[in-house]
Specification:
The complex is a heterodimer of chains A (107) and B (121). With 107 residues, chain A is an all-beta fold. Chain A contains no helices and eleven strands. In chain A, strand 7 and strand 8 form a beta hairpin. Helix content of chain B is 0%, strand content 46%. Chain B is built from no helices and ten strands. In chain B, a hairpin with a 6-residue loop joins strand 5 and strand 6. Chain B is globular and about 40 Å long. The relative contact order of chain B is 0.32. Classes of the chains: A mainly beta (107), B mainly beta (121). Chains A and B meet through strand 4, strand 5, strand 9 and strand 10 of A and strand 5 of B.
Chain lengths: 107, 121
Amino acid sequence: DIQMTQSPSSLSASVGDRVTITCRASQSVGNYLNWYQQKPGRAPKVLISIASSLQGGVPSRFSGSGSGTDFTLIISGLQPEDVATYYCQQSFITPLTFGGGTKVEIK
Amino acid sequence: EEQLVESGGGLVQPGGSLRLSCGASGFSFDDYAMHWVRQAPGKGLEWVSGINWNSGTMAYADSVKGRFIISRDKAKHSLYLQMNSLRPEDTALYYCVKDTGGSHLRNFDDWGQGTLVTVSS
């Protein structure tokens, strides 16, 4: 099975800060990497697919990059509504696997 | 509007069985692969199982293989998860999730609100 490792597990940043979350796969997944946002008490929502493709309706301050084993989610200009837990997920092969999540809070 | 509504969760004793259902509406159910994803209380997301559009491909997480069975009913626009030999570690909120495609099990598009399964004596 492909293991997905996210870092950090949590972070606290100020409004307007640039936030970087990394995700590493235990083997290459090409660009089959998705990012999800889960707000407290809500179901997850897809932000980015195929490593860098922003989903419709997602603010442009979110961006994704990477390929192979190393991926990054950037929030350029953190907003209060971005408080959530973020998960990466590889869609290269089953079993589909998620990273452990990164909890983002406002300082 | 696409909608997924889960049902069938509840309290069950270890070793027991439960069948989850998910009713789909607002999209062409027959065209899409579907999944079950779970989240234990206060924990992260875990993919449980997926089934492609024509039930020709089904896959399971190692943690549930041999105990859970995924199925779908075209006429009822419904997805199911038969859960047998339940363990306390199966306690979680179970989400029904629509894929972005039909043939391959890959991505999680629309999510239901989940149904809670509690395995405890």
